[in-house]
C-alpha cells in the first residue's frame, strides 16, 4: 500500500502528501511529524521573556514620564500589545513547551501572566483542559462558542444585545474582559469556578498584588512628576489592560471562527472529524504581524502538538501544510475579511453545519470534514 494511504509513526510520508479526499490519520500519527520540533530551549526562553518584560516596563514608564498626551497614549497602546506578547510566552510555559523544565515553566508562566492579570492555574484549566481538550465542541469548549437559533431566541433582550455586541466585529475586548477574564478567571463565582483548589485563590491573590503594586507605582510617578493621577492610571493601567483584552479576544476569535470552520454538538462526530486539525485557522499577514505575535497565528500546529515551542511553530505549520494539502484552513488577513466573517458568523446550525445570522438565515456552509470511520458500537 502506498505510504500516503497508510502513514505510520516511523514514516511520516512528507514526500508523499496525503490525498485531500482521504480521511485524516490519527492525531498520534500527525503529531509524530512534529516530534523534531517539540524541543524547548531554556536560554532562548529566558531571553525572550527578559526582552518582552523590559519592553513592557519601558512602555509603562513612558506613560508616566512622557509629557505629551498623544505620546502617553501611544506608550499605553504599545504596552498593551507587549502584554499580549508576554502572555504568549506564558501560554507556552503553561503548555510546558517554553523550557524543558516543568517547575521552571510554572514559575516563568506565572511571571509572564502578571501584566495581563491572568491567574495561571485557572487559565490552565480553562485553556489546556477545556479548550484544547474539546476544541469547537459545544457544551465543553466555551471560548467563542456560537449559540443555536433556539438558544438565542430563549435569551433575554439584554443578553441578546450583548451577543450582538460580542459578534459585531467590535466586540472582542468586551467579550474577553467580561466572559473570560471577569467571569471565569478573576475570583470566579462557584458556578464558573472549576473546583475549590487552593492554588486558584493563591494565583488570584498573586495577580491582585501585582495590580496593586502597578497602580501604586503609577500614582507615585504621577505625584513625583506633578501630573494628574487619574490620567496616569488611565494611560498606564486602563489603556494597556483594555488593549490586551481586545487583542486576546480578537486572536482567539480568528483562531477558531471562520465561515468554513465547523462546530460540533455530538462528541462522536467531533472525534471522527480530527478537530485538532479541522477546527483551527492559520491566519497570514502581509507584514510581520505574525512574527510580532510570536508566531501564535501558526495555530494548527499548536493544536496538533502543544509541546512545540512558539519559536518552532512556523516550521511545524509548514510541515503540516506540506503533508496535508488543502486540509489546513489558511486565511490571508484583511479587515474586510474579518468584518465579513463577523457578519456571517452569528449563530450556528449544528445539524446542517452552517453559520446563521441572528434571524436564522444561512450565511455560510462549513466545510464538511472527511470523517474517519466511527468505532464499533459508537453513535452520536
UniProtKB/TrEMBL annotation:
This entry's Gene Ontology molecular function terms read: acyl-lipid (n+3)-(Z)-desaturase (ferredoxin) activity
Tell me its EC number(s), please: 1.14.19.23, 1.14.19.45
List residues traversing the bilayer: 45-64, 70-88, 205-224, 230-254
Q: Name one GO biological process term.
A: lipid metabolic process
**Keyword Ribosomal protein assigned:** no
Key words of the record: Membrane, Oxidoreductase, Transmembrane, Transmembrane helix
A matching Pfam family: FA_desaturase
The keyword Transmembrane helix is assigned to this record = yes
Q: Which residues form the Fatty acid desaturase domain?
A: 73-327
Specify the protein name. Answer: Omega-6 fatty acid desaturase (Delta-12 desaturase)
Write down the species: Polynucleobacter sphagniphilus
